[in-house]
Amino acid sequence: MIIVKNLSKKFDDDQILDSINMNVKKGSIYGIIGPNGAGKTTLLNHLAGVYKEDIGEIKINDQDIYENASAKQNMAYMQDEIYAYPQYTIKNMADFYKEMYTNWNEDRYNKLKEIFDINDKKRITKLSKGMKKQVAFCFALSKKPEILIMDEPIDGLDPIARKKLWNIVIDDVAKREMTVVISSHNLKELENMCDTILILDKGKSIIEKSIEALRTDVHKIQFVLKNQEQEEKLLKEINVINSEKSGSIRVVVVKGEWNEIEEKINKYNPVLLDRLNLTLEEVFIYEMEGQGYEIKNQTI
């Protein structure tokens, strides 16, 4: 569906993207996460055909996307900021999209307006950030896109609007096999939505894995061993990416196969051994610490 190979991009002397690879399957929801300045929006602009790659290639349904007007008819790009002429009302902008996109569906636009309680006589520039997001979403979904690209789609939305937005996205994925690519800092919501996650850092891809694979490859464990010597030996035998101790309880985040990790711990006959739930946000933080980010215990 969407294949990105060795994508690199510079602006002046700044390397913004460096050898990015992606594989997005049809009908899936693909999340892109990373710290500020990681290159997420630049990557989305390439996927939407706004930017041309310096090196590498992007294929969507086996077609190049840059300057490919026909391919863009089947795509909607919901950017972090909505752009409109200062004097335009929501209705003016909807009419503009209707002329631009052959698959615009007026009935769907009216239904989305109703769901989000949008008065399309209002000027877009006068709307709050949250209302602009809802309007942009209505425009994007009224085109009935095959591919929906979203940059921080829920930033500024209240919980009710977020729920409505995700319900519609999930419904379109289920009924029309719409493919969705989302960049967001709201990792809790992405964890519940996405099939696959890409972690970017400094323009490079750190991890591209399914949510299921992330959960089976990284584990949070608490244990108590009989003495310090056993604990030190064990920590050298397993791939620890984070370790903390509170009293006699050691809590570690470990990479690897769970059965192998459990076997190594059990040979020391632990007094306590529990496997704890690990969130996507925790995985992200530990991976960023592994890339050299100092996150914990920072004060001023």
In summary, what is this structure?
By secondary structure, the chain is α/β, with parallel strands linked by helices. Helices cover 36% and strands 29% of the residues. It has helices at 40-47, 69-72, 90-100, 106-115, 129-142, 159-176, 187-193, 211-217, 228-237, 258-266, 280-290, and strands at 2-11, 14-24, 29-33, 55-60, 75-78, 147-151, 179-183, 196-201, 204-210, 218-224, 239-246, 249-255, 272-276.
Question: What does this 3D model show about the protein?
Answer:
This protein is α/β, with parallel strands linked by helices. The protein folds into 2 domains: 2-202, Rossmann fold (3-Layer(aba) Sandwich), CATH 3.40.50; 214-290, Alpha-Beta Plaits (2-Layer Sandwich), CATH 3.30.70. Helices cover 36% and strands 29% of the residues. The chain has 11 helices and 13 strands. It has helices spanning 40-47, 69-72, 90-100, 106-115, 129-142, 159-176, 187-193, 211-217, 228-237, 258-266, 280-290, and strands spanning 2-11, 14-24, 29-33, 55-60, 75-78, 147-151, 179-183, 196-201, 204-210, 218-224, 239-246, 249-255, 272-276. The strands form 3 sheets. It has a 6-stranded mixed beta sheet, with helices on both faces. A 4-stranded antiparallel beta sheet has the order 11-12-10-13, sandwiched between helices. The chain has a 3-stranded antiparallel beta sheet with strand order 2-1-4, covered by helices on one side. Helix 6 (159-176) links the parallel strand 6 and strand 7. Helix 4 runs antiparallel to helix 5 (129-142). The longest helix is centred in the middle third of the chain and has 18 residues, at 159-176. The chain is elongated and about 75 Å long.
